[in-house]
Structures are given as structure tokens and as C-alpha cells.
Amino acid sequence: MDLEKITAALGVRPEHVARVQELAGDHPSAPLPARSDAPAILDRLQVPAADAAEILAAWPEPGSPLWTPELRWLLDRSTALVRADLGGHEWLPPGPELDRDRGPAWRHLYVYSFLALVDVVTQYHRSHGIGAEVTWATLADLGRNLGVDRRMRGQGWPVMQAWLTLHFRGGIYELGRLQHQRGGTAIGLHIADAGPLTPDLIDASLDAARAFFPAHFPHEPYTAFSCGSWLLDPQLREYLPPDSNIVRFQDRFTLDEPYVPAEGLDPDLEVRRFVFRDLTTPLDDLPRRTLLQRAVIEHWKAGRHWHWRTGRFPFGDH
Q1: 84 and 98: one domain?
Q2: Where do the N-acyltransferase N-terminal domain residues begin and end (predicted)?
Q3: Fewest Cβ atoms nearer than 10 Å: which of 94, 161, 257, 307?
Q4: Alpha carbon distance 58, 233 (integer Å)
Q5: Which domain holds residue 199?
């Protein structure tokens, strides 16, 4: 198709369409599952009922008036783009941010792309001997993130759509309380929105990873666990007790020094995203239900900022 026409129809920047075309190239896409099979798949992915209903209602069947040729092109090529990097473990935006207010096809286009990749990534998992329990626990982060985005009134999806390409390429695995991202010599730790961060749950997840990666990726020699997060900001210790789950999580890490601000990342925005699931509410109107929420607001009201810190500890530590 004509890229200028696609750019104009989608209302996005030309370089974003050109990027999709370049990265997808002539790589094959992947077909969507049959619509009749979709409810069971959405259920396994723990997609909330409201989102599942929208996804099913706007299914890109032939002749659907919701799907313009340009949207169909983007669905095909974004799926090919992600599939071409199967096994990759870096963040990979699947395509340009779309105006999701234009309808459910626009709102869920990248969800359909992920659904098309379910069979691809499950086969990748099987080829590495990974069991179905880990596969579906990992991929169910799609449903979790759709639920969070709905709570955020649609403010979260542009970041989430890039994040979820890790799951659908085999770059990350949910093992108990933590998500473990492959890459380099250190497993990157991520914390899902899934309840308390208790030491026992963390220990169990780390022990699972110590068994999982040598068994399923024996040619990737990991020597450390790493994490980059505002949760590692030592300033939190000014507000939280020493036995809090967050401080005890921090205690596991040796921080990278000296502190260098993360390029292109706004830690205050990330704190807003994860602590309040809200990017726009005025400071005085944010909830103060938890000690962490009160600490974050007090810090900001004092004219201070949060920092994004990185740290690590040895893979073999117990």
C-alpha cells in the first residue's frame, strides 16, 4: 500500500509508518484465531469482561466496516514486526500510537496483533520445554494490563503495548510474584500489579528463576538479577519503616553508583503510573489511602523528585 495514504488515514507521523514497514519487511504475519475460539483464549489471558466484549464485537472479520484497508495493513505488518523478533528481549513498540477514541478497532488493534501471536509464542515456549502453566501465567499479563489501562482511563496503553511485546516474543516469563526478563548476563526483574511484595514470595520467585533459566535457556549464562525502578530509590527509606516490603526488597540490591538520571525517563511520571494509576489528576486530589501514597505526595509537596535507580545482586544468592 501507499505509505503516504496510510499515514494520512491513520493520522500518525510518517516516520512511524516507515518504521513499521522497515522492521516488518517481508516477514510473515500470523493469522488471528477463529472468532469462535476467541472467548476461551481471552479467558485464559484473563482479559476483563468489558474488554473481551469490545474485542469480540470488533473482530476483524472480512467485510467488517470497522476495519479500513489502512488498519488491516497495520495489523498485518505490526504482527509481522513482532514475530520477526521472536526470542528478542528488548522493548519493541509494535507500531504508532493510535487515536483510540476512533472506535474499538483502533483501540484494540495491537491486542488483535498479540492474539495472532498466541500460537507463535506458545510454540516457541514448547520448543524450549516450557510448560503451559508458565506460558499462560506470562501471557495473562495482557489481561492485567488491559484492566489497569481501563482504571487509568486509557492513559496507560501506549507504554503497555510496547511492554507486552516482550511476553509475545518469549522475552519475559512470570514465575510466581516476579516477571523475569532475559538479556545479557542479568535477568531483569519486574513487579506485576499482583498483590503484596512479601519476602517469601520474592524468594520463591527467585528460586524458580534459578531453576528455570538454566533448564530452558542453557546457552544463556546468567550471573545476576537486576532491576531498574523507582522502587529502588533510597529516598523511600525516609518515609517507610525498615521492615516494609519495599525496603526489604531494596535491601537485596547493590545500587549502581553514581546515580545518573535515566535518559528519556521521567521517574515522577512512573511513580504516578504505578502508585496512583493516574497521570493527570491534580496533586491535592490524589488518594492517600496507603502509606506509600502519602509518602509520594509528601515528597512532591516538599518540592522534591523521585529517582529511577538500578541495582543488582548475584544470580546464585539465596
Answers
A1: yes
A2: 37-170
A3: 257
A4: 43
A5: 175-318
